[in-house]
């Protein structure tokens, strides 16, 4: 178990009408794809991916959903949070290669950290950044070199990020594809990569309580792997062995919920 440390918020940035990025002061020492557990005393503790990291600070980008995230949205620069981690597996980094990154909505959060590291490694990174509408697209200014996609055509290509990946993967010939976002989207990404014989890694989301493999809340059928320890980053080859991938997930009570 990782101890909870107190970190101060240096700044809060509005990413979209529904997402904020919180910059914390401190050296986290994380790898792209890993996550932290954020604790607000008297409220709860929740997992979040790391969207940026330097030697002196790190970012957590948050989509407002329920009680915890609404409480977090009220925090300002100077406030403090308890944070434990980093936890979980990370993306496999390559150097001096052509790669593709496919993000959907708030799934771009952990991919932001990954893209930074890939560019430091002098990779040629093709970014597909998709969402329902312009109000749900993350990092529009941070990654201006992205190919943007929206379902309602309010920004970039009308349609899905997977449409562009499918149309361009043969010409791109990437050595690796990385993805995070809605599970149905990642399922399509895996199918495209499998058909084109391109390795792929995805970042999974499951309900987590502890973050370090004790509670078993994030176990996936039928292998019994825990997404907080054997994930959240897994290969597309492994997703083929998971019956629930792209089909259902389990809520906080353990009940199956179909996508």
Provide a compact summary of the structure.
The chain is of the alpha/beta class and 259 residues long. The protein folds into two domains: 5-86, Elongation Factor Tu (Ef-tu), domain 3; 98-252, Nucleotide-binding domain of ferredoxin-NADP reductase (FNR) module (Rossmann fold, 3-Layer(aba) Sandwich).
Break the fold down into its secondary structure elements and pairings.
Blueprint: E1 5-16, E2 19-25, E3 35-40, E4 44-53, E5 57-63, H1 67-72, E6 80-87, E7 98-104, H2 108-120, E8 124-131, E9 147-150, E10 157-158, H3 161-172, E11 176-180, H4 183-195, E12 200-203, E13 219-220, E14 225-226, E15 233-235, H5 236-239, E16 248-250, E17 256-258
Parallel strand pairs: 7-8, 7-11, 8-9, 9-10, 11-12
Antiparallel strand pairs: 1-2, 1-6, 2-5, 3-4, 3-6, 4-5, 12-15, 13-14, 16-17
Helix pairs in contact: 3-4
- Per CATH, the class of the largest domain reads Alpha Beta
Low-confidence stretches: none
Approximately how much helix is present in the residues?
Answer: 10-25%
Main pleated sheet: 7 strands, mixed
Counting H and I runs of at least 4 residues, what is the number of helices? 5
Q: Tell me the β content.
A: 35-45%
The CATH superfamily of the largest domain is Nucleotide-binding domain of ferredoxin-NADP reductase (FNR) module
């Amino acid at each position: 178990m990782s101890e909870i440390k107190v970190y101060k918020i240096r700044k809060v940035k509005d990413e979209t009408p529904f997402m904020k990025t919180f910059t914390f002061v401190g050296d986290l020492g994380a790898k792209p794809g890993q996550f932290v557990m954020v604790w607000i005393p008297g409220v709860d503790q929740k997992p979040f991916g790391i969207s940026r990291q330097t030697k002196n600070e790190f970012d957590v980008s948050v989509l407002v959903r329920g009680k915890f995230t609404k409480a977090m949205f009220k925090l300002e620069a100077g406030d403090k949070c308890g944070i434990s981690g980093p936890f979980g597996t990370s993306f496999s980094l390559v150097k001096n290669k052509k790669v593709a990154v496919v993000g959907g909505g708030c799934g771009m959060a952990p991919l932001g950290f990954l893209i930074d590291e890939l560019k430091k490694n002098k990779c040629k990174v093709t970014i597909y950044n998709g969402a329902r509408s312009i109000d749900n697209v993350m990092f529009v200014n941070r990654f201006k070199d992205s190919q943007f996609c929206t379902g309602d055509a309010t920004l970039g290509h009308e349609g899905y990020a997977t449409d562009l990946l499918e149309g361009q993967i043969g010409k791109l010939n990437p050595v690796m594809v990385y993805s995070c976002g809605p599970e149905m989207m990642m399922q399509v990404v895996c199918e495209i990569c499998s058909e084109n014989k391109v390795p792929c890694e995805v970042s999974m989301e499951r309900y987590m309580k502890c973050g370090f493999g004790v509670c078993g809340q994030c176990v996936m059928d039928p292998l019994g792997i825990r997404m907080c320890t054997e994930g959240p980053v897994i290969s597309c080859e492994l997703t083929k062995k998971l019956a629930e991938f792209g089909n259902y997930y389990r809520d906080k009570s353990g009940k199956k919920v179909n996508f």
